[in-house]
Model the fold of this input.
Amino acid sequence: MRAAVLHEIGQDKLEVLDDVEAVGFGPGKVRIRIRATGLCHSDLSAMNGVLPQPAPFIPGHEGAGEVVDVGDGVTGLKAGDRVLVCWLPACGACPSCRRGQTHLCLAGFMNAGTPNFKRPGGDVFGFAGTGTFTEEVVVGAGCAVPIPDDVPFEIAALIGCGVTTGLGAAINTAQVEAGSSVAVIGCGGVGISAVQGARVQGAAQIVAVDPVASRREAALRFGATEAVSPDEFADARQRITAGEGFDYVFEVVGKSATARTAYENTRRGGTLCIVGAGALDDHFQVNMFELFFDEKRILPSMYGGGDVLRSYGRAVELWRAGRIDLESMITHRVRLDGINDALDQMRSGTSLRTCVEL
Done:
């Protein structure tokens, strides 16, 4: 089986190999033939060590495909079913799940420490317990979520992570109010989804902030009312909010420096929503006086901040209704052999989402 493998953390190239085997199939498990997978910035973060992940590993967690086989005890799924890969399945029994915060369930993270591939040289892990830069993957049944027949695999793959994360940040976590002012810092696939979520919620002004001109241009097509470089952000704040700051600011980069910028550009009493996944040793700081005096809400948003199954369904319905544009988010398409070119495109900011077709 072919798969793209990172041998050591810190390497910037993947090796496409044909001697990989998906392992672990048995009771409660599902084997999926991957048909499409998206590149998410979290894959890069795992490769460079920002996000903890044992190696060697196969990146990819934003995938969709067909069920090949189901293990004993699996109900509701059968061979031939079209599914998307959920990298953070809810167990339904832990305290977070019982409280209705299924996106905080840790069961999925436990899968990341168990190898689900092997090569002649030894075990290989799948990123986030999945690893979709491959032709087949074995995952728990909860990771295989059926998708309607009218949803293409590449669209389902995006819904599996980036779209759900960005839309959910605006709709579930921040609960953007109609008529409000919004700024989104970082306009890759997740940031563009946050822009679309703010538009769906009825925000009056949506300012996209990104250093890459092509991403700023894209943000305007997806619903931003204005798009500026980081150097122009202060001027936009002055013009649009009379210097007060935005009602909602979304940080979709995952760095303390941009989080601080987001905080400073949030109005008193407004909401700062942290969407980007950052490093363990990168600390965001506020002083105790401003924390008290400005009363700004700081809301982290994990995987869209809501029940992921409900969020998947909502994304599908919004897409069907033409309220969000998912097709245009796919700016590049490659086969597995082109995975390293796709990673370079993401690093340079020239792509929003690249679809790897398998």
Observations:
- DSSP finds twelve helices and 19 strands in the chain.
